[in-house]
Design brief:
Blueprint: H1 21-30, E1 40-41, H2 45-49, E2 66-67, E3 76-77, H3 78-94, H4 114-126, E4 133-135, H5 139-150, E5 160-164, H6 169-181, H7 186-189, E6 190-193, H8 205-215, E7 219-225, H9 237-246, E8 251-254, E9 273-276, E10 291-294, E11 301-303, E12 319-321, H10 333-336, H11 359-375, H12 377-397, H13 410-413, E13 416-418, E14 430-435, H14 440-449, E15 452-453, E16 455-457, E17 461-465, H15 473-498
Parallel strand pairs: 2-15, 5-6, 5-7, 7-8, 8-9
Antiparallel strand pairs: 1-3, 4-10, 9-10, 11-12, 13-14, 14-17, 16-17
This protein binds pyridoxal-5'-phosphate.
Pyridoxal-5'-phosphate binds next to α5 and α6.
């Protein structure tokens, strides 16, 4: 179970030097993953403010920005250009031969097999068998494809979908439209789990379980986020999945904010299905191809060969697999190019593919996956827990002692609170900081002016994520110092206005 372990105390908890720059530097010096930062392109402060993308003239050197926004869009790995350029060269020099012909200097296999390479590399990142993962399409599309397969409402039987009331809007729209697609009324069929406290919208596992229990007899599907996009809360996937199954309800997880962020074990947790995007912590570029997981017990394809030796949908009744929306790329590789209109799905998640993948796009995903596999999720998670706990410590315990540079006593000021659970095992990299509503504009503007990239959610939340592949403890220290100063300055300005 992901949240039953306890976390040892962090070394900075009793150390007054924790607020000094030297202390942050010492944490970086001990970081065994620090070299991965060099594998990413980190924009300079000047890059962020220049009116053009390409510099027009020779520019004086500029310091790197402090990029803490991997929860929204991850930075570009240096390998991406290499992989994308090699693909472009393959296409340019080989044309259609690139589909099937291997080459001595290829970085990815021929185009027809590139998706296999991606799923093999993706599997350890989400804790799955390679056959349970497909790198394909985009998140909302994949949610629809999966719901088309797993949401099978019965007339007079189970028809409801349980989800959270504060879900990312695209998930809400996807569920609502699936329900309407079956000619059912969303007002009745959509069960929305609402937080007890709207100001502090954390959902306890008990609350989720109680809503599931209340609707269990009528529920056909549950869809939840592994990590909530707004609060950064990491749900207890293992326990909630087991509970759903005890009520015979299939459950799917939106892993947009969890993939590449926390150590998922989708197979072991017996999750029915999951989907994610690859542009946040997965660093594959805006709108990059996403991924999906289908547990192996749902991915079977039983072919009972008939007397004439034929399988496939041409011999209906002899082929059994979970129903889905189909396209040729989900068809078994041995028969895919026979073009005989008999759909024989590939076993596993690959059988959910519809179209041949964009090799341009998947090249970027593969480049990023190579970095993840070199670093490994267990090691990344260990560093992530430390980075985020250090940030929380600096934000919440800053003394007013001037020597430390942190001139604001955050504990007294109460200019902000952290929405994200304080238990490191109930969150990933992201901290969602709720500031007093009148402070957001000023605080955010000062962070931008200081070259610190975070993400604001109006009316008053700043989401900040220190990601272990490219962020340092110094990034965290810089952010905290600037954020606390920015809060104090915005408060002084506000008092000046009102006083
Ligand atoms: C939780 C969640 N669900 C769905 C989406 C929509 O993703 P896409 O535009 O890739 O379909 C996002 C995008 O950020 C998200 O964070």
């Amino acid at each position: 179970m992901q949240q039953s372990q306890s976390q040892p105390p962090f070394p900075w908890e009793d150390d007054t030097k924790a607020f000094t720059k030297a202390y942050a530097e010492s944490l970086d010096a001990q970081d065994t993953l620090a070299h991965f930062r060099g594998q990413f392109i980190i924009p300079t402060k000047h890059d962020l403010t220049r009116k053009t993308i390409v510099p027009k003239d020779e520019e004086p050197p500029s310091p790197l920005c402090t990029y803490l926004c991997g929860n929204s869009l991850g930075l570009q790995p240096k390998a991406t250009q290499t992989y994308v350029n090699r693909f472009l060269q393959t296409w340019a020099t080989k044309g259609v031969l690139g589909h099937f012909t291997p080459h001595e200097d290829e970085l990815t296999p021929p185009f027809v097999d590139v998706d296999d390479m991606a799923s093999k590399l993706m599997a350890p990142v989400v804790g799955a068998l390679a056959s349970e993962v497909a790198v394909m399409d985009t998140l909302t599309t994949n949610l629809h494809l999966l719901m088309a397969s797993f949401y099978r409402p019965q007339v007079g039987g189970r028809y409801k979908i349980v989800m959270e009331g504060k879900a990312f809007p695209s998930d809400h729209f996807a569920v609502e439209s699936q329900i309407m697609h079956h000619n059912l009324p969303p007002a009745e069929a959509m069960v929305l789990i609402e937080p007890d406290d709207l100001e502090h919208p954390i959902l306890s596992t008990e609350k989720i379980i109680s809503v599931i229990d209340e609707h269990a007899e009528e529920t056909a599907l549950i869809l939840l986020p592994a990590i909530q996009y707004y609060t950064g809360q990491y749900f207890d996937i293992a326990r909630i999945t087991a509970h759903a199954h005890s009520k015979q309800i299939p459950i799917g997880w939106d892993c947009a904010h969890a993939v590449g962020n926390v150590e998922l074990k989708l197979h072991d947790w017996d999750v029915d299905f999951a989907a994610w995007c690859n542009y946040k912590y997965m660093n594959s570029g805006p709108g990059a191809m996403g991924g999906l997981f289908v547990h192996e017990r749902h991915g079977f394809v039983d072919v009972d060969v008939n007397e004439n030796g034929n399988g496939g949908s041409g011999s209906m009744g002899r082929l059994s697999y979970r129903p889905r929306l189909a396209g040729w790329w989900g068809g078994d590789k041995k028969t895919r190019f026979i073009m005989d209109n008999r759909f024989l799905p590939c076993p596993g998640a690959a059988g959910y593919q519809l179209s041949n993948p964009s090799v341009l796009d998947i090249s970027a995903v593969i480049a990023s996956l190579q970095v993840f596999n070199a670093a490994t999720m267990p090691a990344l998670r260990q560093k992530s827990i430390k980075l985020t706990a250090y940030m929380e410590h600096l934000l919440l315990n800053s003394p007013s002692d001037k020597q430390t540079i942190f001139s604001v006593n955050s504990a007294d000021s109460k200019l902000f609170t952290i929405l994200t659970p304080s238990n490191p095992l109930e969150r990933g990299s992201q901290l969602s900081i709720l500031v007093r509503p009148y402070l957001l504009q000023g605080v955010y503007a000062r962070l931008v002016a200081s070259g610190i990239v975070v993400d604001e959610r109006k009316p008053n939340v700043i989401r900040v994520a220190a990601v272990p592949l490219y962020n340092s403890f110094m990034d965290v220290w810089e952010f905290c110092r600037e954020f606390l100063e920015a809060c104090a300055e915005a408060e002084r300005e506000n008092q000046g206005k009102t006083g």
